[in-house]
Amino acid sequence: NVIRNLAIGGLAGLMLGLAFALARQALDLRVRTAEDVKALSDRPVLSSIPVRKGDDPHAIYLDLDPFGPQAEAVRRLRTNMMFVDVTTGKHSFVVTSSLPGEGKTTTAINLGLSMSDAGTKVLLIDADLRHPSVAANMGLEGAVGLTTVLLGEADIDDVVQRWGGTNLHVLAAGEIPPNPSELLGSQPMVDVVQALSSSYDFIIFDLPPVTAVADALVLSKLIHGMMVVVRKDYCDQQSLA
Question: What sign has the CA pseudo-torsion 228, 42, 83, 89?
Fold first, then answer.
């Protein structure tokens, strides 16, 4: 019976297709929406920054397109960070991610620039002493910076650079050390954080991904809060958890 066999074959193919689709969805643990993040953490989602095809992955949105959706999303992030700052009195935050390549440095740079536009005196510190990129992305001198200060070879004021005519100040990473975690957890680092806290309204620390190394967790003991950047369809739920 050709018709019956075709019907049975079509139904079997449909059922196999549905089973494959359900299995693939169940096994795919990538973070796709803000709801996925909320299911893994009780911390609030502060903003969702869209990525436009063809964009430089290290684009400074506030300069590239001041009125574009990326810039508006960063301003929304700034506003929500200000609310967090008001309710907790926390004026320094670590910006990190779960995996490399999720946009933590780009987010930190744009957030700092957006906060400075609001009249806040901001310091952005490149504390990623393994793969520093803040200075390169912003076109600043990166040979001296945080590690130079920690070694006692320069004063903080001598190596902090101002971004144009804004209120955004940048402390580059400086020379890459062989022992990043030990430096970030050292007494000189404690002294640097305490000294800077009285000089700036808001301090942002760019640090390596938390699943790769322990640097962010080490420094978070000295800082008041942590913001994790999650890239859609890139980070999996296991890594974020």
Answer: negative
In sequence order, the 6+-apart residues with CB closer than 8 A to the CB of 72 are: none
Rounded-to-integer distance, Cα 110 and Cα 114, Å: 6
173, 145 in Cβ contact below 8 A? yes
CA–chain centroid gap for 5, Å, is 57
Single out the residue of 183, 182, 200, 181 nearest to residue 147, CA to CA: 183
Q: Which pLDDT tens digit goes with each residue over 99-151?
A: 888 889 999 999 999 999 888 899 999 999 999 999 999 999 999 999 999 99
User: What is the token pair recorded at 212?
Assistant: 């790769």
Q: Is the pTM of this model over 0.85?
A: no
Backbone dihedral region of 165: left (phi > 0), alpha (psi from -120 to 50 degrees) or beta? Answer: alpha
Q: What span, in angstroms and rounded, lies between the C-alpha atoms of 231 and 106? A: 12
